[in-house]
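Entry under discussion copied across for reference:
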Amino acid sequence: MARLIWLMGASGAGKDSLLQALRAQTPPALLIAHRYITRSADAGGENHIALSSQEFQRRCAAGLFAVHWQAHDQHYGLGIEIDLWLERGLDVLVNGSRLHLAAPAARYGARMLPICLTVSLPQLEQRLRRRGREDEQQIAVRLARAAAPAPEGCHSLSNDGPLSETLAAFNRLLEQMR
């Protein structure tokens, strides 16, 4: 049975880095879905499809998103093409959201594999400071949010060490969950 792999983790945990590494060495029968986001295409970070708010709402009204949510003043959506990929027997990996796990869990049920990418708080703080996108107050908020317990049923994947180790652990987890 093909699975929707919902990758979650705190900002700075390394989701974009892991997704980039997986794109370079994608395991067989796995597709990495892009998200549709009302954020500029040149905003950096993940590979996404940039939409205006109006276009996002138009696509939402037309039923073109399998799942959609709003966070950080942006709209996020996953296209209905992921359902076709799942029907074809392909696992689909998406950059998900901890706070919006309920909608895909309801839609995909037992086909859903939630993975929480974790990083120690000292490592996370170091990464947030290094990237320089947040001020001190924003860093404190992100660290507090990261300290919250992972959603129930989420498989933990540590990203404290080298990315190559995280990539290998991800591949082992996929094999174990078959």
Remarks:
- The mean pLDDT is 91.
- The two ends are 8 Å apart (CA to CA).
- The chain has one domain: 4-173.
- The CA atoms of residues 26 and 72 lie 29 Å apart.
